[in-house]
Amino acid sequence: MTIPNFQSPRRPPCVLIVEDDTDVREMMDLLLTSIGYRTVTAPNGAIALERLREDPPCMVLLDLMMPVMTGWEFRERQLADPTVAAIPVLCMSAVYQPEDVKTKLQVNCLAKPLDFGRLIDEIATACGRP
Q: If we measure between CA atoms, which residue out of 7, 8, 15 comes closest to residue 128?
């Protein structure tokens, strides 16, 4: 008698999307799930910190200008918490220059409107392909 080889399916990489604009957040969620990533979303940095600690993602996509807690504040608190400090972050901003953000927050940054090809490449580099 042959025993079948049951392997549990691999869980897709998870990306945390932190964006206060509902339309942008939902569009990014749809894009990433359509190519096989799992996503978790948050409308501000405070909720993002909670979600970051609940189920650490392979990467955080972070808007900088948000109510309640900005992306700047989120990154400061993330770096202060050794349990989540190493999780890669990719900032997205229509206001700040990507090179300024990279220097100040120690993260890569994409300018809005986003280049989705580059966004997907950055995620694949941090998380692998689903």
A: 15
Calpha distance 48→66 (Å, rounded): 11
Angle CA(5)–CA(11)–CA(15) in degrees, nearest 5?
Answer: 170
Q: How far does the chain reach from its first CA to its final CA, in angstroms?
A: 35
Chain centroid to CA 56: 10
Looking at residue 56, its amino acid is P
The two tokens of residue 116 are: 């989705």
Write out pLDDT tens, residues 24-65. 999 999 999 999 999 999 999 999 999 999 989 999 999 999
Nearest in space to 37 (alpha carbons), one of 19, 64, 60: 60
59 bridge partner residues: 15
**Among the listed ranges 51-55, 85-89, 101-105, 117-121, which one has the minimum average pLDDT value?**
101-105
**What is the maximum span of the chain, computed from C-alpha positions, in angstroms?**
65
- Spatial distance between the Cα atoms of 111 and 38, rounded to a whole number of angstroms: 23
